[in-house]
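Researcher: Please generate the 3D structure of the following complex. Treat every line as part of one assembly.
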Amino acid sequence: MIYVHVPFCETFCTYCGFYSELCGAGKAEAYAKAVCKEIHDRAEEFDDSLRTLYFGGGTPSKLPVKQLTEILLALESVGHGGPYAEFTMEVNPEDIVVLGPSYLESLKLLGVDRISIGVQSFNDDMLRWMNRRHNAARAEEAFRMVREAGFANVSLDLMFGMSNLEDSVWEETVDKALALKPEHISCYQLSIEDDTPLADMIQSGKYAPMEDEKCWKQYYTLCSKADEAGYSHYEISNFALPGFESVHNSGYWQRIPYVGLGPSAHSYLGNRRSWNSSVISGYRATSEELSPEDIRVENIMLSLRTARGIDASYLFKNCSESVIDSLVGEGALVRQGGRFRIPESRFFVSDEIIRELI
Ligand code: SF4
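Model: Done. Output below.
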């Protein structure tokens, strides 16, 4: 699995704590050169147990096709080119509309077979509050263009849990998303990250987080509507039509090794985790060996995020039997064949359940 972090954004969202920069003159070139060098330097580290490629960000659609091509050629030159089991590109709706069909055609020619559109909301007031670049009409337009370009595997990102998000507005967004029939929906609850405009707004009393109970309600609005529309809720934050679960992201939850390229990207290889520093070029990796305890905790946390759950014998071997029994007794864990999982009705409080187990 290969992840490429593209650290460019044109504007910065109210809530975002990811590393990214404005894509000014010369930056894309310097960035691509640094990633290509990293590909060559780390050629021995690539693991082919699951051949997926994922460009995330930041805003990968800010990366010019020329530099994207250079990175793909570098991967090919070290024996890790396509075709991939899944090749995802995250895009901003506004970029799709502005760059037009020729950009999408280039992505297709380069082998991209899955597009993930950062919609977040179909309400213009919410999008303005988030400081997103697009409006609802442009998001719909982008989706239509992606379809017209022939992409048959499209994911939409949505966000809930903002205290100024009325339930009725959220329902409209969910309905609109489902009406478009994307193959996949990722939906995240707003989280408050340090050093973001949102954190400043809280500090100055301009924003108060939404109460848990209201977030819970919005989460389950999506769960029930997605279920009615035929989506499986295969991971806490992810919904897919049959056969369209994200191969790449499912690999993370199964702890399949991956190489993360580019500034601030993380890698996981042979029980070592490493992460690159956050500068466009000349970034360096820091790494740590995971202890058996780190691995135990990660296995439990990641597996129980999914509807597939965790192997029952692994859980019995690694957690207290009385805690497992009591969680089963209160319906927070369900045994199905040889596995335990958290039922959908408790996904929202999965962190608490996992904390009890570990
Ligand atoms: S949410 Fe995405 S588009 Fe917005 S600032 Fe963060 S990385 Fe950039």
